[in-house]
């Protein structure tokens, strides 16, 4: 059975390392089962966001309800897409002014998530519920000079239109990862192969999840250092996907195709980077 290793780096990020060794790939750890999908089921609409160095190309509108948010990174730098529903009457300019002053989530109405940590040329997706409203889309990944990408102009706006919908349509997934302050809990051992992971935030604060397949001999803390240093040099692992920050009570899903190896789950939400260890 895969083993779980927990650690925490003060002033950095919550770290969970999931180990799947080649020797454990037995009958119990075959490719994750895929639930049968009703014949009448239709794929949710796709909201395509293109990330560049340093700007977003975002559609003007998106439908309310369950959607697939797809991030296509055509730049050379690491990028993600953070979606947050702004307060009524709030303009994008006002929103970004507040973010520059204080990056914490007190400045917006709902933190809904989005695809996280795509390397150049990578395409990542999450399925998520979008409520009607005006959303800010931005990237807070730090550059090599220490400034977050939104300081270089990497932000945009998205209008979500339609009637309010229930949040229940988010798929259950094959593996459930529960986010809390400051832990990850995994419902069952991850399997190799194609599977859907459901990320659900049960804590009182916003949290995110970045899944990284570690390079042999590298650790989760190597990834943290590489990230905080502006991603200089070769990455100590391959970014697999996950979700940017989601508010308490929110859930999103991501689909992965996992092989054996060592994986790290990391949270880089800015207001948590100065937390204390445990």
Question: Would you give an account of this structure?
Answer:
The protein is mainly beta. Helix content is 7%, strand content 41%. The protein is built from two helices and 18 strands. The chain has helices at 92-101, 220-228, and strands spanning 3-8, 14-20, 46-52, 55-57, 61-63, 65-73, 82-85, 110-113, 123-130, 133-138, 155-161, 175-180, 183-186, 193-201, 207-214, 237-246, 251-258, 261-266. The strands form four sheets. A five-stranded antiparallel sheet has the order 1-2-18-15-16, with helices on one face. A five-stranded mixed sheet has the order 5-11-10-7-8, with helices on one face. The longest helix has 10 residues, at 92-101. The two termini are 26 Å apart. Mean pLDDT is 81; it is low at 1-32 and 272-278.
Quick rundown:
The chain has helices spanning 92-101, 220-228; strands at residues 3-8, 14-20, 46-52, 55-57, 61-63, 65-73, 82-85, 110-113, 123-130, 133-138, 155-161, 175-180, 183-186, 193-201, 207-214, 237-246, 251-258, 261-266. The chain has 278 residues and is mainly β.
Task: Name some characteristics of this structure.
278 residues, 2 helices, 18 strands, globular, disordered C terminus
């Amino acid at each position: 059975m895969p083993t779980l290793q927990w650690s925490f780096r003060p002033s950095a990020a919550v770290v969970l390392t999931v180990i799947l060794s080649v020797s454990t790939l037995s009958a119990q750890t075959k490719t994750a089962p895929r639930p049968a999908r009703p014949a009448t089921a239709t794929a949710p609409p796709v909201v395509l966001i293109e990330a560049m160095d340093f700007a977003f190309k975002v559609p003007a509108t998106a439908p309310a309800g369950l959607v697939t948010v797809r991030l296509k990174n055509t730049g050379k730098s690491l990028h993600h897409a953070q979606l947050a529903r702004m307060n009524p009457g709030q303009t994008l300019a006002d929103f970004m002014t507040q973010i520059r002053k204080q990056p914490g989530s007190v400045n917006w109405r709902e933190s809904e998530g989005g695809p996280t940590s795509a390397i150049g040329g990578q395409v990542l997706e999450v399925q998520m519920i979008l409520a009607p409203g005006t959303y800010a889309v931005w990237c807070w990944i730090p550059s090599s000079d220490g400034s977050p990408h939104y300081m270089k102009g990497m932000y945009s706006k998205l209008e979500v239109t339609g009637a309010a919908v229930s949040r229940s349509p988010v798929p259950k997934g094959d593996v459930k990862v529960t986010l809390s302050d400051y832990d990850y809990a995994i419902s069952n051992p991850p399997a190799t192969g194609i599977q859907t992971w459901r990320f659900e935030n049960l804590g009182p604060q916003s949290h995110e999840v970045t899944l990284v397949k570690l390079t042999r001999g590298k650790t989760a803390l190597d990834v943290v250092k590489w990230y905080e240093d502006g991603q200089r040099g070769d990455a100590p692992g391959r970014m697999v996907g996950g979700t940017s920050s989601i508010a308490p009570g929110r859930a999103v899903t991501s689909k992965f195709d996992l092989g054996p190896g060592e994986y790290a789950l990391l949270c880089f939400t800015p207001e948590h980077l100065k937390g204390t260890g445990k």
